[in-house]
Design a protein that fits this description.
seven-stranded mixed beta sheet, 5 helices, N-acetyltransferase, Acyl_CoA_acyltransferase, GNAT_dom
Length: 199
């Protein structure tokens, strides 16, 4: 393996969008997202990162092949559904970097790339002078029929990175699960990390 991790943004992202769309569609089919997506939709979604000032995508590559990616952009450039829970007085939306989705093909997990994704995005927040990083994760019931056995959540990993789970901060996003005929709403719970400077 010849693994590397780099950050791209703005027009430099354009050549990678088709492969990123394919990768997202593949990885998000797995539990807990169970996402029945298509690359054409994902390419349109990724235009957000191409067009948004200060948005980045962290690429993990084995040689030239993209094997993983992780996104981030200022909260002020996110959708209303994502922005709404993070409001004053606790949060200044202009001081938050929102950490979007991370995808990594199965054979490359356990090699430190998850930490690298957070390292690069948190460094980007510091460069922008933002003191809060946040993301939300889908909530599935423990008895969900598609839940693998055994299954280990990422909660311990996120907590070790300094993120606090916030059951009081939630939003709802919709997508079509595998085997469904239409989109259904999914509850999403936030995890928050604040630097000392930001309180």
């Amino acid at each position: 393996m010849n693994l590397s991790v780099t950050t791209v943004g703005g027009p430099d992202l354009a050549p990678f969008i088709p492969e990123l769309a394919r990768l997202r569609t593949l990885v998000f089919r797995a539990y807990p997202y169970l996402y029945d997506g298509d690359p054409a939709y994902e390419e349109r979604y990724l235009q957000t990162y191409l067009n948004a000032p200060d948005a980045i995508i962290v690429l993990a590559r084995d040689g030239e092949a993209i094997v993983g990616a992780s996104s981030a952009l200022p909260l002020t450039q996110e959708t209303d559904d994502i922005r709404a829970p993070l409001h004053a007085p606790e949060f200044d939306p202009a001081d938050v970097l929102y950490l979007g989705e991370s995808v990594l093909t199965a054979e490359y997990r356990g090699r430190g790339l998850g930490h690298a994704f957070f390292d690069h995005r948190e460094a980007h927040a510091a460069r922008l002078g933002l003191h809060t990083t946040a993301f939300c994760a889908v909530q599935r019931p423990e008895d969900h029929p598609a839940r693998p056995t055994p299954y280990r959540t990422h909660h311990a990993f996120w907590a070790a990175r300094g993120y606090t789970e916030r059951p009081d901060l939630t939003t709802t996003l919709s997508w079509k699960d595998l085997g469904d005929h239409h989109e259904t709403p999914k509850p999403m719970r936030y995890w928050i990390r604040k630097t000392q400077t930001g309180g």
